Amino acid sequence: MAKLQEIFLVLLILGQPLAANAFLGEVIGAVAGVAAVGVLGPVALAGLGFTAAGITAGSIGASMMAAGVPVAVLQSAGAAGISYSAMVAGGAIGAGAAHSAKHALDD
């Protein structure tokens, strides 16, 4: 079913006239947001020291923990991966940013 939805979305995008570039920009923004959260999120978490094995000693994550900063959510994401809802949120933020940028450029 998901594959059918992906095909429909691609056909919808390709069928848009060039005048509908605002819609296309929002779709591209949404895809970029999902990619940023889904691909770069785990890399960033690991870089901060939040891994599946725990918080890496001597990392920024360990420093945050020592300073009393709540790190449970970041460690959970580092151990279990980025959730579907976080990727959806990233897509929504990307689409919103593209929408805002389009309107700012039009004004």
Automatic annotation (TrEMBL):
Compartmental location: Membrane
Alphabetized UniProt keyword annotations: Membrane, Signal, Transmembrane, Transmembrane helix
InterPro entries per record: IFI6/IFI27-like (IPR009311), IFI6/IFI27-like_sf (IPR038213)
Protein name stated in the entry: Interferon alpha-inducible protein 27-like protein 2A
Cellular component terms per the entry's GO annotation: membrane
Topological relation to the membrane, as annotated: Multi-pass membrane protein
One Pfam family from the record: Ifi-6-16
Transmembrane domains' residue ranges: 30-55
Organism: Biomphalaria pfeifferi
Signal peptide as annotated in the record: 1-22
Family the entry assigns: Belongs to the IFI6/IFI27 family.
